[in-house]
Amino acid sequence: MADPTDPIFEVPAGLDRLRAVMARLRDPEGGCPWDLEQDFASIAPYTIEEAYEVADAIERGDMEDLKSELGDLLFQPVYHAQMAAEAGAFELSDVIAAITDKMIDRHPHVFGADSRDKSAAQQTADWEARKAAERGARGTLDGVALGLPALLRAAKLQRRAARVGFDWADTAGVLDKIAEEAAEVAAARNEGPERLEHEIGDLLFTLVNLARHLGVEPETALRGANARFTRRFEAVEAGLAARGRSPAEADLPEMEALWREAKARGL
Q1: Which sequence ranges form a coiled-coil region, renumbered to this chain (predicted)?
Q2: How far apart are the C-alpha atoms of 152 and 27, rounded to whole Å?
């Protein structure tokens, strides 16, 4: 239980106190041993995990959980900035100043003289043009983070390539490519695991392209499919349990019937 007389409570609540908490956790003289052992690489997976937990709370519509998860996510840049400050690289204030300046610069229709009479699509195009100018002479795909989950990175790589005209003209071409890639997967079934992995990767990449052409966010679509699968399979387990059985004791036709019932109920 926290000691109400601890000097930490003399720091104003809010970002200042959060920064002070982080500094205390990393204090070599009295900090947390676990936190003192961490570095950027060891904390990065937690940063990614917290972002997904925010997305999960949003998907569930749980505002109380969203508040909590946003706090966990906010703690991540504070953590990284503390380690950077210890290394003499930058402070949290530098991070805040940089993103503030970037947002002002990229929204001249709000903070500058550009016309505000633009569609969201035109504003997005302007945003991307400014980012491209910032990248300067670097390649089209430079800066697409290697650490992104593969599905998200595939979508971002494809969007970047499409901006310079490397794209199918319509969904018909993508659908033809999916059929081609599916045939190559079928043909690779007896060619060894490496070849099969290669062809399945190509098929998945092309499916992401189809989602992009249809205006569907592939990560969101797959998260939805995962959620539906979870609900329906749990319904299958519940149905079997009501009969005094487990999935291991049932056969596939029985489970398929329960699955169809769950789907019919809108699960």
Answers
A1: none
A2: 37
- CATH number corresponding to 7-105: 1.10.287.1080
Here the tokens at position 140 are: 């089209």
CATH code of domain 138-216? 1.10.287.1080
Residue type, 219: E
Of 238, 235, 217, 216, nearest to 227 by C-alpha is 235
Q: Which pair of structure tokens corresponds to residue 158?
A: 């494809």
Cα-Cα-Cα-Cα torsion 205, 206, 209, 210, nearest 10 degrees, comes to -140
Q: Per-block average pLDDT, block size 10, for the chain (267 residues)?
A: 88 94 96 97 93 90 96 97 98 96 89 79 74 72 86 92 92 96 95 94 97 92 92 96 94 96 94
Contact 148, 219 (CB under 8 A): no
- Specify whether the CB–CB gap between 30 and 63 falls below 8 A: no
